[in-house]
Amino acid sequence: MTEVRVHHRPISTWWWTRKPTYFVFVMRELSSIFVAWFVVYLLMLVYAVGRGEAAYEDFLAWAATPWVVVLNVVASLFLVLHVVTWFNLTPQAMDVRIRGQKAPASLVVASQYVGLAVVSAFVLWLVTR
Amino acid sequence: MADSIRLEVTRYRPEGDSGPEVQEYDVPLRKEWTVLDGLNHVKDEVDTTLAFRWSCRMGICGSCGMNVDGEPKLTCATFLSDYAPGPVRVEPLANFPIVRDLVVDLYDFMEKLPRVKPWIIRDDDLTVIDGEYLQTPEELDAYKQFSMCINCMLCYAACPVYGLDPEFIGPAAIALAERYDLDSRDRGARERLDVLIEHEGVWGCTFVGECTRVCPKHVDPAGAIQRYKLKAAKENVMAFLLPRGAR
Ligand code: SF4
Ligand code: FES
């Protein structure tokens, strides 16, 4: 075979700013960090509650400091992005069939929101009862 | 409508010293003209040295893929009028090395495709005389979508994972593996999974989803890859829980 002198194009570090879809993808990946943050935050809350009234008050005071509030607001926004993007991707990842027929994507997505609502309501009932 | 549109075409001459350059051509803007028609006009009337691939002009052969204004497209199915007043950037498919002008080197895919064994694998070896393997319309439906692939490579050009890590086996190859796995006549799922369960297999994919968006044949390679991940994950759990003989 004759040797062909091909040209390789380098990929820019900023490739993900080239298209909106790439950008959303990178933000979705980034959102995982904030999901992890909320897990840590929840564990800290549970730990504080476990250590008694005073520790819990301390935790609340710390949670009300401006930087924690700002962090949690940003983290919530990323969490919403995380939920919405992953729910939207599910119909592609799972081949859901109802009586042999492929279930419409909207049904798969909707059922996840129903699931989320049910679980949220249960948790709300659990903590407020 | 203006009567001409400017194409900004990537030129690369391997015998020269420099890298790719952009050359501009003005071509007639007609309602029924595609980007490929524009390029053929250049080739026939303006500059015979321009190199590009095409054959069927009807979205079947998969050879005319190029990046048009940054998006991987079949140029025979992409109309110039959609880019009016222009200019339109026409580049070789992204993520592949350039051989000359708009022609890219597809050797990498040619080497990867047979790894997923995209053919029907049987335990028994029936001959033609034994008769055909029958299939119901439902069984055909199960894999039909994935069999529509024309190997146009638009999905590879759109995939940032493939661009950053050329070891990744890539969307179309995995979609074709799924096509044979879902075929009722096939018994090769196990062999394909052994290939795709590797890191360069399905786990390379981070579900950007761009392959599915650019696919001109609605193959949905991203969907095929995620389903493969489920299969691979199940396999890993089984391997962990059960001794080899029991699987
Ligand atoms: S999966 Fe679609 S985009 Fe990829 S090679 Fe096949 S037809 Fe082209
Ligand atoms: S020329 Fe065959 S697909 Fe475009």
Topology:
The complex is a heterodimer of chains A (129) and B (247).
Chain A: H1 20-50, H2 53-63, H3 66-93, E1 97-98, E2 101-102, H4 105-128
Antiparallel strand pairs in A: 1-2
Helix pairs in contact in A: 1-2, 1-3, 3-4
Chain B: E1 4-11, E2 21-28, H1 35-46, E3 65-68, E4 71-74, E5 88-92, E6 98-100, E7 103-104, H2 107-112, H3 137-144, H4 154-158, H5 160-164, H6 171-181, H7 189-196, H8 210-214, H9 221-241
FE2/S2 (inorganic) cluster (FES) is lined by residues 54-57, 59-64, 74, 76 of chain B.
Number of helices of chain A: 4
Ligand identities: iron/sulfur cluster, FE2/S2 (inorganic) cluster
Mean pLDDT of chain A: 90
Name the shape of chain B in a single word. Answer: elongated
Largest interface summary: A-B, 21 and 29 residues
Task: Just give the CATH class of the largest domain in chain B.
Answer: Mainly Alpha
The number of strands of chain B is 7
Structural class of chain B: alpha+beta
Distance between the termini of chain A: 77 Å
How many DSSP H or I helices of chain B? 9
The whole-number mean of residue pLDDT values of chain B reads 92
- Could you give the order of strands across the largest sheet of chain B? 2-1-5-3-4
Count of extended strands of chain A: 2
Order of helices and strands of chain B: EEHEEEEEHHHHHHHH
Helix/strand order of chain A: HHHEEH
The low-pLDDT segments of chain B are none
Q: Which CATH architecture of the largest domain in chain B is right?
A: Orthogonal Bundle
Number of domains of chain B: 2
Silhouette of chain A: flat
Class computed from helices, strands and strand pairing of chain A: mainly alpha
Enzyme class (chain B): oxidoreductase
EC number (chain B): 1.3.5.1
Keywords (chain B): 2Fe-2S, 3Fe-4S, 4Fe-4S, Iron, Iron-sulfur, Metal-binding, Oxidoreductase, Tricarboxylic acid cycle
Protein name (chain B): Fumarate reductase iron-sulfur subunit
